[in-house]
Amino acid sequence: MVTAAEQYRLWSQDPYFDEATRAELQALAGDSAAIEDRFYQMLAFGTGGLRGVIGAGTNRMNRYMVRLASQALADCIRPLGEAAMARGVVIAHDSRRYSPDFALEAALTLAANGVVAYLWDSLRPTPMLSFAVRELGAAAGIVITASHNPPEYNGYKVYWEDGGQVPPDRAGAIQAAMRAIGDIRTIRPLAEDEARARGLLRPVPPEVDEAYTQRLLTLVTAAPEQRAALRILYSPLHGTGRRPVVTALERAGFPVTVVAEQAQPDPDFPTVTKPNPEEPEVYEIALRYATAQPADHGPAAAGGPFDLIMATDPDADRLGVLVRDRNGAYRMLTGNQIGAILTEHILRSRAASGTLPAHGAVIKTLATSNLVAPLCREYGVTLLETHTGFKFIGDKIKEFEETGAHEFLFGFEESYGYLGATFVRDKDAVMAALLVADAAAHHRAEGRTLLEALEAIWRRCGYFQEGLHNVTLPGKDGQARIAALMASLRTDPPAAFAGIPVAFRDDYAAGTGVELATGRTYALALGRSDVLHYRFADGGFVMVRPSGTEPKLKLYVSVVGSDEAAAAQLRDRVMAAALERMGLR
Hints:
Blueprint: H1 4-13, H2 19-26, H3 32-39, E1 50-53, H4 63-77, H5 82-87, E2 89-93, H6 99-112, E3 117-119, H7 126-135, E4 140-144, E5 153-160, H8 168-181, H9 192-197, E6 201-203, H10 207-217, H11 224-228, E7 232-235, H12 242-252, E8 256-258, H13 284-291, E9 308-312, E10 319-324, E11 330-332, H14 335-353, E12 360-365, H15 372-379, E13 382-386, H16 390-403, E14 407-413, E15 417-419, H17 429-445, H18 450-461, E16 463-472, H19 475-491, E17 496-497, E18 500-501, E19 504-507, E20 512-515, E21 521-523, E22 532-535, E23 541-546, E24 552-561, H20 564-581
Parallel strand pairs: 2-3, 2-4, 3-6, 7-8, 7-9, 12-13, 12-14
Antiparallel strand pairs: 1-5, 4-5, 9-10, 10-11, 14-15, 16-24, 17-18, 19-20, 19-22, 20-21, 22-23, 23-24
Helix pairs in contact: 1-2, 1-3, 4-6, 4-8, 7-10, 12-17, 14-15, 14-18
């Protein structure tokens, strides 16, 4: 096994690596801890593909790790035959540092292996990549993105021919192919001119963009006058969302104003600490705009106050929403709440139109609220769960197509990801923006805000409140600490949190669960994963898992209370008890 020190010597001295890379590493000479951190492991496929801090080393995102991953992908496509190589790989990128360079690096590495690469000439959202793979009949897809991470990160996500992210078994095969390469210096990307001349590097046909927009527009059900009455303020948070989101909303007939200060793509995301629509601080500029006097903004505010404020993350697969209440204040919805509102909207619309199938299914992840369970029972559709990560929802859609067991209606996860149609196989913030606008237009026409629609769901289904706490533990030592915390919970499992008894304890690493009252054990249907899930009798839960893309331990809490305030207080008590039990406060 090659040691970190040996890798460091290779990367810092061999002329295969560019001068800037070697200089960056040579500046670390003598700093054994920094060298170890950069080379103690190879970036691994997690919940959202490869992701890491930009820099030199095998534990960083750089052109050489992009080459390695792309060579491994080519090695996995080649055995499928020349037809698969000719179908090619579609490549997209976001607005992050080096994203265009990494996208081209991936394309030229594939081209050197005789695999056709379709490359967009400018940034595109992740969901458009998923759509394009299916639209072009490609063998696979790549998107260069680190989603909502801070500016110093970038990443590499792989999609397969169905348009979904590669599932764990295929990701594992790509990872194994990366390790099998051995000497990274054997990877030699093709020159760009030669790749284009040989037809191995091609532009994505412009018709793909239009086809995507047309498919989105078929999802809107509100009447034209209802759409025109809704006013939306939107921020792309310096990412890829502006053109597709504004195009879709405007062509659907929804008036939309863009937050000017956050409109342009910018890899530094200068107006926010982290470009994540889950974070309240990203809406500060939008809120100042929305709450200003109309005279301050002239014609832009002439139609009255904004009903909704929306924001998408840099690769436009996550959507955040603020709703104006009756007093003129804006309230932020959680991902669970948006998911519940959209679930009801889709089921209600399908039922009203007579198109709700008898074998319909809604899919959510284990970390996502059970608020939608009573909704699904009310409308007679099946609710299914997957592990965390939208790739598992995409895999379920593929399973439905192959078996005919269910018809997909809606899928979502608590981390602001939603999907309402199968022409995309990953979470889609462009689609979600249209769906939220459509739901808001319907409710507005009936005299309700989305907040009031949520209150009506709570009254019928229970006042659910959720929380998430991230414990950041970077580096090799951090990984060991995370492993120790998970081991401690397994060695001495909690029986209650803040006085709420655990009814069922599920350990997905072991693949088994136990009913605490009876001691009955059972096999878990989902695959193995390092997840501990403590379920309460009323549908609430505590869940703990290491992040698949960041050096974090993630703690999820979901509770049910007698009203919104009581549920929020209970959530905070359960979260505090869980953190205390883990020695984290």
